[in-house]
Amino acid sequence: MNAESMIAWVENPQPPMPKLYPSALSDQDVADVAAYVGSL
User: Fold this and answer.
1) What is the pTM of this model?
2) DSSP letter (8 states) at residue 13
3) What's the rounded Cα separation, in Å, for the pair 39 and 21?
4) Contact 33, 2 (CB under 8 A)
5) CB atoms within 10 A of CB 4
6) What whole-number distance in Å separates Cα of residue 39 and Cα of residue 2?
7) Per-block average pLDDT, block size 10, for the chain (40 residues)?
8) What is the pLDDT of residue 22?
């Protein structure tokens, strides 16, 4: 998965994952989560 698709995955998760963007997560938070997931 590239960074762009990981960001899309964080912004629009599949159920049962909760949708946390845009209210609970900022754009920077989303980018940070995507970078972390990409490093695993």
Assistant:
1) 0.61
2) P
3) 21
4) no
5) 9
6) 11
7) 86 86 84 89
8) 76
Q: Where does the chain have alpha helices with state H? A: 3-11, 27-39
Nearest to 7 by CA among 29, 39, 23, 18: 29
Could you say which DSSP state residue 3 is in?
H
Two tokens at 18?
């909760």
Q: Is 16 helix (H, G, I), strand (E, B) or coil?
A: coil
* Residue at 22: amino acid letter: P
On the CB side of 19, how many CA atoms lie within 13 Å of its CA?
Answer: 8
Dihedral sign for Cα atoms in the order 34, 36, 39, 40: negative
